[in-house]
Amino acid sequence: MKIVLFGATGRTGSKIVRRALTDGHEITALVRSPEKCEPQEKLMIIAGDVRNPDAVKKAMAGADAVVSALGTDKTTTLTEAMQAIIEGMKEYGIERIVTIGTAGILNSRTEPSKLRYQSNESHRKLTFAAEEHHKVFTMLKDSGLDWTIVCPTYLPDGEASGNYRTEREYLPINGTQISTGDTAAFAYNELSKQNHKGFRVGISY
């Protein structure tokens, strides 16, 4: 499979790259800082800005699927990039996308009409990042694409253990954290298994 990956130099994205290359897939990574990517066989590194639709579409040429592990970086980069990604996917006829979101955009158990970041389940005073991820969720939901949003809670660095829980649309009960390694493993496996097309998936220990 040929995968185009956005956010390849990030904590989770870099682990997805490693897994995909180990399994023999081809990866195209659009990155702002190519020097952060170690040259490897079957990894094509393209320097560019994910907010630039032309750069995004160039990276997508010939791809079978898309992974976005982009963060919010306190700007609208995430939503600008997703608009370009969706347009590029439709132009090239790519249907499958897996993105890394946040547990804040899962449904609230305590206030059913709200998402977690809007409810008393959230202890964060700043909601900008969750609002950006919420916009991406809405964009994907309306896109007609085969999407899955992986929604980790507190995300410390760590390798994959495989001992995690997942739940569609909700954060697993009493879930407090999940490593970058296990988040990457689940997102990578979901790309091809497609068990959760059209769903947000909460993941935690």
Tag the structure with descriptive keywords.
globular; about 200 residues; alpha/beta; about 20% strand
Number of domains: 1
In CATH, the architecture is: 3-Layer(aba) Sandwich
- The whole-number mean of residue pLDDT values reads 96
Helix/strand-derived category reads alpha/beta
Element order: H for helix, E for strand: EHEEHEHEHEEHE
Number of helices: 5
Q: Approximately how much beta-strand content do the residues carry?
A: 15-25%
CATH overall fold name = Rossmann fold
The N- and C-terminal alpha carbons lie at a distance of: 30 Å
Biggest beta-sheet profile: 8 strands, mixed
Helix content: 25-40%
Radius of gyration: 16 Å
Q: Supply the CATH class.
A: Alpha Beta
What does this structure look like?
The structure is a single chain. This protein is of the alpha/beta class and 205 residues long. The protein contains five helices and eight strands. The chain has an eight-stranded mixed sheet, sandwiched between helices. Helix 1 packs across helix 5. The radius of gyration is 16 Å and the shape is globular. The model has no long low-confidence stretch (mean pLDDT 96).
